[in-house]
Design goal:
alpha+beta, Ubiquitin-like (UB roll), Creatine Kinase, Chain A, domain 2, 2 domains, 7-stranded mixed beta sheet, 15 helices, globular
Amino acid sequence: MTSVITPVTDQLTLSGLARRDGIEFIMATFTTMTGRPCSKLVPICAAPDLEAGRMGFAGFAAGAIGQEPGDGDLVVIPDLTSYTPLHFIKRGLALVHCDPQLNGHPHPFAPRQILRAQVARAAALGFDLQVGAEIEYFLVEKGQGWEIAVADQTDTALQPCYDARGLIRQFDHLTDVSRAMESLGWQPYASDHEDANGQFEQNFAYDRALVTADRVITARYIIRMLAEKRGMTATFMPKPFMDRTGNGLHMHMSLWDRAGANAFRGVGGPDNPYALSDQALGYVAGLLDHAPGLMAVLNPTVNSYKRTAALSTASGATWTPRYASYGGDDRGVMVRVPDNNRVEIRVGDGSACSYLAMAACLGAGLDGIGRGLHPGPAGADHHAGRPALARTLLDAVEAFEDDAVVRAVFDSVDPAAQVSQYYGTLKRNEFYAWHDAISTWEIERYLTA
């Protein structure tokens, strides 16, 4: 195991960090609006060019990043605080997350820039968003075509959650990931077998929103690459198996004030059983009020709605919310309140872009605080007056397009760029592409009807 990396200081350069850690190549990485990391492999001799903003990407080729073939190159500026040695994947390799710019300005379609804008907005109001993320995934093997099966063929328990045998059979993979996180200073604290056969979750300590969003992207990459080394495929797909629990991206959020105190802590009472502050109650109310518009961000694929709309699974529970509700230990609510330090958004899934998911939730929560909203009665059954969560991606897109607050989050870097319109069109076209394809279900149902 490599030693824990030391914090980045203002005096260190990317070249200096790389030489200190024996790095030969750096993955200069940015993320598209679908959460896809895109990279160039930069030798250490070219690190000064990367730092100086002389490393360009043809944005249209990268995918959903708001560019056409005739547009100018996206220039990426590395954020040294995200520098991450990856010796456990390839000796001498590191990754650094970058902020794309276009013509010297922050690129408004870059998810990292969108989250930056919301974090700055919160800071202007005296708040700093802290986020913890739970990363769920399946370990599978691919068969012919796109057929998949659980990688551990003996993982067949009817209720496999926390199963000690299934956990230890994947011991080598799970501990490799945990050691990697520890070496990076992420403070991993648990790996567990989740509710479905072949499904696992790995946790690390919470941090500032941008740090955690970076780490979600990096962790997914680490998990995938280490799984491949063992001949497995790690998938964060929301619902790869129809009869099993899906993959969530649960986010634990709290706002901290300028004095470094948790602004979510309050005093309990008959109308406040969870002892949340007025700010925390407003934040929860904002999430619930904007739940329909948030769905297209937290559940951004066609497959997402096979998870949130599931009626049952082999284990007897779906663990996904169906309504905009909140409560304590009930894991069927959209916003869970584990204690008076934080709230947990449980509706997000493994296809969500961590930057956009955190930015949209922050924007909705701040709106609730600003309007002095209260979430009302707690509990999964207390959702009167709130709409049911979207049943399809198309429903979610329509709600997103009707939500001025969530759209404003997407347009916060440059309103003239109309990023929210681009995102809505992107997701609407994704739904239609799925709708236009002929499925096995249709053949079975209609071929001889």
